[in-house]
Amino acid sequence: MLILRIALLGAFSICVAGSQSLLAANNPPRAQSKAHSHLPPAAIAAMQSIRPANIETQVRFLSHDLLEGRGTGQRGGDIAAEYIAAQFALYGLNPAGDKGSYLQKVPMVGITPGPETRFSLVPAHGSAIDLKPLDEYVAYDQTQQPESVVDADIVYVGYGIEAPEYHWDDYKGVDVKGKVLLMLVNEPPSDDPKFFTGKALTYYGRWMYKYEEAARKGAVGAILIHKTEMASYPWEVVRNSNSGEKSFLKLDGSPRIKSAAWIQLEVARKLVANSGLDLEKLMADANTREFRPVPLSARLSARMKSKIRSFESNNVLGVLPGGDRVLKDEGIMYTAHYDHLGIRPDMPGDNIYNGAMDNATGCGILLEIARVFAASTQRPRRSIYFASVTAEEQGLLGSEYLGKHPPIAAGKMLLDLNYDYIPPLGAPEEVEVSGSERTTFYPVVEATAKDFRFTIRPDARPEAGHYYRSDHFSLARVGIPAFSINEGMKFKGHDEAWGRDQDADYTAHRYHQPSDEYHPGMDYTSDAAMARFGFALGWEASSQTERIEWKKGDEFEKARLDSK
């Protein structure tokens, strides 16, 4: 009955979007490109049928209170997945999920810290510092056990990075087995593109890597020090992303730590001071290759009590088979995550994290691209896959599972184009395609951007490490050339400062907050432009005569070679 209702909702949405398209057809948008002579007429017609109103319709529905913030493992997230599957079916895409369905089941575990959890920093001399959950720290037990006890010495390990390709080792061979590691988020600052890629954050700077490396070293816990300038987001984001139930992929045998935590900067300063040290000096020391781990005169005493819940979430997969008899066995993929943070029953006031911009916009674009590809009178040579994935907000989990269980072998997937947070701000004059320059497909990206009269803008905030914070990264890790498509900062009728102000305002007041809601009157011209641009790139990729590769020396080159 639920699937039938969702299918009816999907049909209603299509009817609304369709009527809007018919109305718009009498006054089609001015093509945002030149003649696109390299695309066949059918592809041009399909591309130009993309409508801003269609995308807005999808955003409005997916971010409605009825979907309760599309939480992973929550009812609203399951409804969103079924709705997107219904849309794929109505468009005429073939199912590409499990057992002839549109759904790929992702086995997961939900972990909710219990009220009995205790997290104390105990100095060698003096009283223990009992930290307040959410206000001063957040922590999860990654071992997926209902109870774990930690009583271990704390060792400061700088950035917690071992990167031989950059001749960097924060551990220096020191045995940290059984210890709790205190570390900085981010990575050593540099303007040298040959040293941690300069200003652009690498995966070494991401919190996921920090916890993974701590587990590989045999540590029982890891504590990240939050500093807004280094994390690129305020404590509010850490709190909202790490409160209530958090999802993890079911254990696969990889090592895990008992306490994966963040603490506020002032808490870290007090902890270090109690050991007779200065945090500012320790942070400065961590920026040199000579840095060595520093044992603190303190330990972590924690009792991690967790409610454990096994469940399945779903990726949603559809495919348009290619038109070439031989090349249809290869594919191009579009991705966008549908999940957000869900509903927080224990929170007063507005407790629904609607996720309108993050990422109902990306889903709306993916659905519109899927619709026009399916409606095209000519099929691209290779098959086109559409994947709306779960649990991105939990650490790219849905796309990680997709990368490990792709609908076709990773070596046969030429490219992944991802959409994540495309704010409706009007007509864009720039496009951000960070990571595309690392692939052999980049000349096509440049030529297509020129056709659309877009300036390719370098990552506006390279220090934030956006390349490693969205689902394309999971596909890159298994070798598939992948990047996200987004607007830049310059929009028609506005200067660049205006675009920066919009981005800063969203980060400060709506990112991972209940206020990320749909509001009528926003200008989805930008989302439609990004959809057309991505459509053109996907069609071009499907027509390539050679396999798309990572450029020589890239960190993902080996995975690509191994996928052949």
Describe the structure.
The chain is an alpha/beta fold and 564 residues long. The chain has two domains: 2-26 and 37-107 and 314-562, Zn peptidases (Aminopeptidase); 111-308, Glucose Oxidase, domain 1. It has helices at residues 2-25, 41-48, 52-62, 75-91, 207-216, 228-231, 235-241, 265-273, 279-285, 356-375, 397-404, 442-451, 472-477, 496-509, 525-542, 557-562; strands spanning 94-95, 103-113, 118-123, 129-130, 137-140, 147-156, 162-163, 168-169, 180-184, 221-226, 246-249, 259-264, 294-320, 331-337, 342-343, 352-353, 383-389, 413-418, 430-432, 455-456, 482-484, 486-487. Helix 2 (41-48) packs antiparallel against helix 15 (525-542), helix 4 (75-91) packs parallel to helix 10 and helix 10 crosses helix 15 (525-542). The longest helix has 24 residues, at 2-25.
Task: Determine the CATH superfamily of the largest domain.
Answer: Zn peptidases
Structural class: alpha/beta
Q: Average pLDDT value?
A: 92
**Biggest sheet record:** 15 strands, mixed
The CATH class designation of the largest domain is Alpha Beta
| Oligomeric state of the chains present here | single chain
Rg from C-alpha positions? 24 Å
Number of helices: 16
**How many structural domains?**
2
> Helical residue percent?
25-40%
Core attributes:
single chain, about 575 residues, alpha/beta, Aminopeptidase, Glucose Oxidase, domain 1, 2 domains, 15-stranded mixed β-sheet, 3-stranded mixed β-sheet, 16 helices, 22 strands, about 30% helix, about 20% strand, globular
